[in-house]
Amino acid sequence: PGGQNAIVNKGNIGGAYLDLAINDSLTQKRHPGNSSFSRKELLASAEKYLKETISMSQTINDLYYESFYGLILSDVYELQSDYKNAYSLYKKYKTVDDSLHSQDIKNQIAQLESEKELSLRDKKLEINKLTIANQKKQQIALVTGIGLLAIIGGL
């Protein structure tokens, strides 16, 4: 009930109410029972669902959904002329978004550094193998040379 699916579902309902409030032609449509929803009522419903979504996100410490649905709620506040809350939520969203992107970039840099280190290590291993192979060849040549000298010296 309080997991990510519930958060997304509730947040999407809030977003749908916001979409209805933004599209004036839809606010004129009648709901079954001949009651119509005013823009103000649609925005109030959007606000209610989005606040619940943000609260659920905070409960499970999901900063991404908290800030994402906070951004949508900032649009609701803007349409309600509550610019202070709209700006506050927008700032919070940008801070989290920048932080998430910054972490992504840090992860990419770490991945590239790790790949570079592995590549350098592999090259060093290859060089070491070649060095050992050359040393073995030199030893064989030296032993062969000594053996030939011993044979020639023995004649």
Concise account of the structure shown:
This protein is mostly helical and 155 residues long. The protein has helices at 4-22, 24-27, 39-59, 63-79, 83-154; strands spanning 30-31, 35-36.
What is the topology?
Elements lengths: L3 H19 L1 H4 L2 E2 L3 E2 L2 H21 L3 H17 L3 H72 L1
Antiparallel strand pairs: 1-2
Helix pairs in contact: 1-3, 1-4, 3-4, 4-5
* SSE ordering: HHEEHHH
How does the major sheet shape up? 2 strands, antiparallel
Distinct helical segment count: 5
Proportion of residues in helical segments: over 70%
Number of strands: 2
Uncertain spans, ≥5 residues at pLDDT below 50? Answer: none
Distance between the termini: 97 Å
Overall pLDDT confidence? 87
Q: Which structural class do you get from the secondary structure elements?
A: mainly alpha
Shape: rod-shaped
Polypeptide structure, described:
The protein has a two-stranded antiparallel ribbon. It is mostly helical. Strand 1 (30-31) and strand 2 form a beta hairpin. Helix 1 runs antiparallel to helix 3 (39-59). It has five helices and two strands; from the N terminus they run H-H-E-E-H-H-H. The longest helix is centred in the last third of the chain and has 72 residues, at 83-154. It has helices spanning 4-22, 24-27, 39-59, 63-79, 83-154, and strands spanning 30-31, 35-36.
